[in-house]
Write a structure and sequence with these properties.
Layout: E1 2-7, H1 13-24, E2 27-30, H2 31-41, H3 46-55, H4 58-71, E3 77-80, H5 84-87, E4 92-97, H6 100-111, H7 115-137, E5 149-152, H8 158-174
Parallel strand pairs: 1-3, 1-4, 2-3, 4-5
Helix pairs in contact: 1-8, 2-3, 3-7, 6-7
């Protein structure tokens, strides 16, 4: 089974992916992790690397291609990333969302930075990604019609969201 898990920065994608992997043994393929590794290799912040990616489409295209190749390599794969639900042929496509204020609080805590810094950086990152994906793929990230399951994570922690997703997985496996 192939599942894609997309969502806004700070919506809980990584935490939920880990919970699902732990529960079902899915291999996680993370676009964000690959993007962060590339930024670190180049000695750049995420914002700097995002600005570079805005000018150089080969960065996003390489990450997407790698995810496609890896998604079919394992019997049970969870592909995590904002474009995964649009670029991967999956059995279940999930999108996580939550208000910017809550996401900024989560990011500030996770990154050990101020709320204001997290809020500002997240807004810049989102604008950058919306622009890149529109320009490179003609994808509007605000159009969620491609997803089978959309969960607002403001009411649940990663374990709660995983319980919701588990019901969908179990239903699909029973067919």
């Amino acid at each position: 089974m192939i599942i894609t898990l997309g969502g806004q920065p700070g919506s809980g994608k990584t935490s939920v992916a880990k919970e699902i992997s732990s529960k079902y043994g899915f291999v996680i393929i993370s676009a964000g992790e690959q993007f962060r590794k590339l930024a670190q290799e180049k000695g750049m912040s995420l914002e700097e690397f995002g600005a570079l990616a805005e000018k150089d489409p080969s960065i996003d295209l390489a990450i997407d291609q790698r995810q496609k190749e890896l998604s079919v390599k394992y019997p049970d794969t969870l592909v995590e990333g904002r474009l995964a639900g649009r670029t991967i042929n999956a059995d279940l496509k999930i999108w996580l969302k939550t208000p910017l204020e809550i996401r900024s609080e989560r990011i500030a805590k996770r990154e050990n930075i101020s709320y204001d810094q997290a809020y500002d950086e997240t807004r810049v990152r989102e604008i950058c990604e919306l622009t890149r994906y529109r320009n490179y793929y003609e994808i509007d990230l605000t159009d969620l019609t491609h997803y089978d399951l959309i969960i607002d994570t403001k009411k649940w922690d990663a374990k709660g969201v995983t319980k919701i997703i588990a019901k969908a997985i179990e239903e699909l496996k029973s067919k």
